[in-house]
Every structure is written in structure tokens, then in C-alpha cells.
């Protein structure tokens, strides 16, 4: 029995030597999982944050954002993976997402999709580093980006004018559409003679009114004419859909008084050119509209006749932007058979579609 002890001791000794040999073999293999400490001579470079780039604005869509990373490198033989931090502060004390063991992508770059979407209205900071389970590389430079709400410019709704109206200078009213995530929105009103808007006669741009209803006013339109109009919003980059289209017909042409042929009253006939200029330009401002037009001249003619003046061709309805001022001792130039003296004080009022002017021709 005593001879068995050396044998048993020998077995124990052999077992211990084998275990030590196995552990030594494992330690000699740098890819072994049991290697926990840094391996001398291994250098892992910092990856680089590519997208979002510094200061980039990402529009919130409800979908998780995607990060693009330039891969790190290593001088070791162990496989490296990435760690990713996203925070709401540049010191990374408020981390909102941490990812680890992210495998490197092909082609020198890694695409990483966050598990959930980052909410809008915040500035975020992100950084990455690489490690191989034993060694870690430095963090990349921290990059900030902003998630902003989506731009919403809802279509406005056309309200009036619609149908037959009593005037040729209607106010155009639209109910504002929803607007968010942007500034500087303007509403573009389009007025056309045709329902397909191939004959646009006016385009007017105004800022949406904060009351929720936006009103646009333009110059005179021809009487007894049907028009179509619509409106849409734009911030210069994003546009809304068009509103509904409304049709309206301008009011009936006012009937000018039937003047009695004869000599104008002495007071208006003796007005100075300056007095007539002040009167006519005020009349144009009040009823003629901002620019020369047939509708504006028809609207002004009644008052002019009452003061002894008339437009060229007014007697036949084919008005021209030229008026004949009253001449003392001569009849009003409102019919074809007046003497030549009735045309001695002629004034041009400008060109169609342009502001009213005062250009004496005598």
C-alpha cells in the first residue's frame, strides 16, 4: 500500500502540470476569449462620425435615424466592434442611447440604425469608439445634430368671392391651412378667366393673417365677367396643395348719367390744371383702382361727366385713358359732333396695367 502513494502523487503532479500547460497555451493565443486585459503592442484607431455631420438638421419622420461611421483600424489580430453613444449634452451625462458590440460594415464604413426615433426639438451629440474585448481605442470627436419637426404647409380653403357679386373689386378671403415647422410662408392668390388657369389675369402674394383668415384685395376687374380663383402656400421650398377653386362673376356695369349737351358750368371749366390734376388723381384713387383699366375708367366716367369732362371715345363706350377737360365757352367733348375747341385741354392718364399718370398735352 505504501507504494501506491508515489503513484498517486505522480498523477496529481501530472494533472497540475497539464492544467498549467493548457492555461499557458490559452494565454499565448491573443484571440482566446479568456484574454481580459490589454494586449501590449495593439493600437486601435478612433472611428469617425460621418453622418449626421456637425450642425446637420434632420427632419423628424417617425422613423429611426441612421448613423454613418468610418470604421476604426487595429494592429491586433482580434476582431474589433463599435460602441456608440448618443446624448443630449456634449459631456455625455444624459445618454439617450448606447449601443455596443456593433460589427464593422463592409467597405470601410458602418451604417447603424437607431432602435427608436429620436424625438424632434432637441440637439443631440454622438460619438463612437472601437474595442476588441481586451483593448479599447479612443472616442471619435463628438458631433452635434438637430432633429427638427417636419415642415407642414396645409392647403388653405377658398371662401369668397363666389357666385354673382355686386362689385368689380371683391375681397378674396381664404381660411388658413395648418402651418408648422417653418417660417416665412406666403399665400399666392391666382385669378383666371378660365377654369384651367391658362388665362391668369392676376397673381397676388400676401402673408397669412394670424387670425386664421387671410384677405387679399386687388384692383378693379372688368364688369359682368366670370373669373376663377384659387390659393396655395409656400415658404420658398415647400408648397401646399392648391385650395379648392371658386368661380365668381363681377357686378353689372354702373350706368353713367345721360349728360345734357351744352356748356359745362363755369366753375369747373375755369379750374386750373393743378385743380383738375388733384381732382382726377383722387378720383382714380377712390374708384379707378391702382392701375389703368377699362373697369376703372368706366367707374370714373360718371363723376367726370358731372364735372364737364369725359374720356376719349367715351360717347361710344370704347374708352381710352385720355380725358378732355372742359373749355370755357365750348360744349363737353362727349359726342362726335362737338367743335374742335372742346379738345383744347387734353390729358393722358397713362398706359393700361400701369399706375395712373397725369400728362397734359396742351
Cα radius of gyration in angstroms: 43 Å
Q: Can you identify the CATH class of the largest domain?
A: Mainly Beta
Given as residue ranges, the uncertain stretches (5+ residues, pLDDT < 50) are 1-27, 256-266
Biggest sheet, spatial arrangement of strands = 2-8-7-4-5
State the fourth-level CATH superfamily of the largest domain. Immunoglobulins
CATH 2nd-level architecture of the largest domain:
Sandwich
Mean pLDDT, as a whole number?
86
| Helix-strand sequence | HEEEEEEEEEEEEEEEEEEHHHEEEE
Task: Kindly estimate the percentage of residues that lie in beta strands according to DSSP.
Answer: 25-35%
CATH fold category name of the largest domain: Immunoglobulin-like
Query: Helix/strand/pairing class, anyone?
Result: alpha+beta
Helix content bin? 10-25%
Shape annotation: rod-shaped
Please summarize the sheet with the most strands: 5 strands, mixed
Q: First CA to last CA: what distance?
A: 151 Å
Count of DSSP H/I helices: 4
Amino acid at each position: 500500500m505504501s507504494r501506491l502513494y508515489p503513484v498517486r502523487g505522480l498523477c496529481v503532479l501530472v494533472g497540475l502540470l497539464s492544467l498549467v500547460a493548457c492555461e499557458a497555451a490559452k494565454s499565448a493565443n491573443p484571440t482566446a476569449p479568456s484574454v481580459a486585459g490589454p494586449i501590449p503592442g495593439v493600437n486601435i484607431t478612433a472611428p469617425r462620425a460621418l453622418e449626421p455631420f456637425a450642425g446637420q438638421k434632420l427632419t423628424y419622420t417617425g422613423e429611426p435615424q441612421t448613423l454613418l461611421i468610418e470604421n476604426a483600424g487595429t494592429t491586433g489580430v482580434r476582431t474589433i466592434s463599435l460602441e456608440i453613444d448618443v446624448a443630449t449634452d456634449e459631456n455625455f451625462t444624459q445618454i439617450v442611447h448606447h449601443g455596443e458590440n456593433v460589427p464593422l460594415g463592409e467597405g470601410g464604413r458602418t451604417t447603424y440604425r437607431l432602435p427608436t426615433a429620436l424625438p424632434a426639438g432637441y440637439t443631440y451629440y454622438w460619438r463612437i469608439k472601437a474595442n476588441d474585448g481586451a483593448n479599447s481605442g479612443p472616442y471619435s470627436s463628438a458631433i452635434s445634430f438637430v432633429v427638427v419637426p417636419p415642415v407642414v404647409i396645409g392647403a388653405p380653403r377658398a371662401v369668397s368671392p363666389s357666385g354673382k357679386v355686386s362689385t368689380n373689386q371683391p375681397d378674396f378671403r381664404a381660411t388658413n391651412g395648418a402651418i408648422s415647422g417653418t417660417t416665412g410662408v406666403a399665400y399666392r392668390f391666382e385669378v383666371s378667366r378660365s377654369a384651367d388657369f391658362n388665362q391668369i389675369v392676376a397673381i397676388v402674394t400676401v402673408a397669412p393673417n394670424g387670425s386664421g383668415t387671410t384677405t387679399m384685395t386687388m384692383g378693379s376687374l372688368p364688369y359682368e365677367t366670370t373669373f376663377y380663383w384659387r390659393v396655395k402656400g409656400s415658404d420658398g421650398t415647400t408648397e401646399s396643395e392648391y385650395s379648392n377653386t371658386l368661380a365668381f362673376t363681377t357686378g353689372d356695369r354702373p350706368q353713367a348719367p345721360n349728360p345734357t349737351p351744352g356748356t359745362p358750368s363755369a366753375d369747373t371749366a375755369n379750374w386750373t390744371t393743378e385743380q383738375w390734376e388733384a381732382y382726377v388723381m383722387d378720383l382714380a384713387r377712390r374708384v379707378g383702382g391702382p392701375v389703368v383699366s377699362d373697369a376703372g375708367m368706366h367707374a370714373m366716367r360718371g363723376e367726370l361727366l358731372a364735372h364737364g369732362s369725359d374720356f376719349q371715345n367715351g360717347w361710344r363706350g370704347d374708352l381710352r385713358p385720355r380725358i378732355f377737360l372742359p373749355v370755357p365757352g365750348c360744349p363737353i367733348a362727349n359726342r362726335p359732333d362737338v367743335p374742335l375747341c372742346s379738345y383744347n385741354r387734353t390729358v393722358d392718364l397713362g398706359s393700361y396695367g400701369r399706375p395712373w399718370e397725369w400728362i397734359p398735352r396742351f
